[in-house]
Give the backbone structure.
Amino acid sequence: MSTMMMTSSASQATSSSSSFSQMLMRPIQFYAVIADRIRQRKMLAELSDEMLKDIGLSRMDVRGECRKNFWQA
């Protein structure tokens, strides 16, 4: 087997391994994003009206954000 063919085979094996690990990481990353959204919305709902005013939000804005489904950004 030539050096060129061996290098190509090793490169393909590394690429396959890399794409497989990326495929496994997608659900974990998705879960992390969802968990973060839920956490942020819960924290937003716990802010006082004064704190919300400081960041330019009303209680109605917060209610609208908290009513979103977890998959909605």
Notes: The two ends are 52 Å apart (CA to CA).
